[in-house]
Design goal:
mainly alpha, Arc Repressor Mutant, subunit A, two-stranded antiparallel ribbon, 4 helices, 2 strands
Length: 99
């Protein structure tokens, strides 16, 4: 996955979110811009400190994180879901109502 040398997590920077090459731009920023329809060229034009390899590294990081995701079914009350999601830092919590 070629992101190891470009993506880092530093507790004091952007709330511990993964950032690109020590910049204050997070992986999630780039993924959000791409999801909103920006092109890689458009992102680089708006943020010239980024390189095309940085954008590719963000995609590789997201793909690797998704590949490592674990789904666990735990019966909880729906009203507790938000509190659990808030308590687990940097985790993806999806609550589905089962009946």
């Amino acid at each position: 996955m070629g992101y190891i040398d470009r993506i880092a997590i530093a507790p004091g920077k952007r709330g511990g979110r993964p950032v690109i090459r020590g910049l204050r731009i997070t992986v999630y920023d780039v993924l959000g811009w791409l999801a909103d329809g920006m092109t890689a060229d458009g992102i680089i034009e708006d943020f010239p400190e980024l390189e095309r390899a940085d954008i590719q590294a963000c995609l590789a990081f997201a793909a690797d994180r998704e590949r490592r995701a674990i789904v666990v079914q735990v019966p909880i009350l729906t009203e507790h879901c938000a509190a659990i999601a808030d308590a687990i830092a940097d985790a993806q919590v999806h609550c589905l109502e089962v009946g």
